[in-house]
Design brief:
mainly alpha; membrane; transmembrane helix; transmembrane
Length: 128
């Protein structure tokens, strides 16, 4: 449970901070996401870092239970797969990413989701 608490604190703060930043900075958020999809070198670098983080979480916390720690396991797998996707950066993935970024108010959906998930993890990491 110590690993679950550590990851809840770490990921909770990370998601809450970046979720709030996305909500407050629509133009900057869109610019960053578009730049990420257009720069092959940046995609590869972000893919390496994301794959490393996802692999670390999966190796250290691959816990499939019917309780809150499964949130961390699922986030680890999503992060790992996302990192692999960025590293491979297939044409289909980039096409999907560009369509995703063009969704009206995507910063509200993404930032809101990250903020709520971050708050939930902060609750389990620090309060419960």
């Amino acid at each position: 449970m110590a690993d679950s608490t550590f990851f809840a604190k770490f990921l909770g703060v990370y998601l809450a901070v970046f979720g709030i930043a996305f909500l407050l900075n629509k133009k900057q958020s869109n610019r960053v996401m578009k730049a990420l999809l257009e720069g092959a070198g940046l995609q590869f670098y972000i893919g390496m870092i994301t794959t490393l983080l996802g692999a670390f979480i999966v190796v250290k916390h691959n816990i499939w239970v019917r309780d809150w720690p499964v949130i961390i396991t699922i986030l680890g797998w999503i992060t790992l797969l996302k990192g692999i996707g960025y590293t491979l950066s297939t044409k289909q993935l980039m096409t999907f990413g560009k369509k995703f970024v063009s969704i009206k108010n995507i910063h509200i959906y993404g930032g809101g989701s990250w903020t709520i998930l971050g708050a939930v993890l902060i609750y389990f990491g620090y309060i419960q």
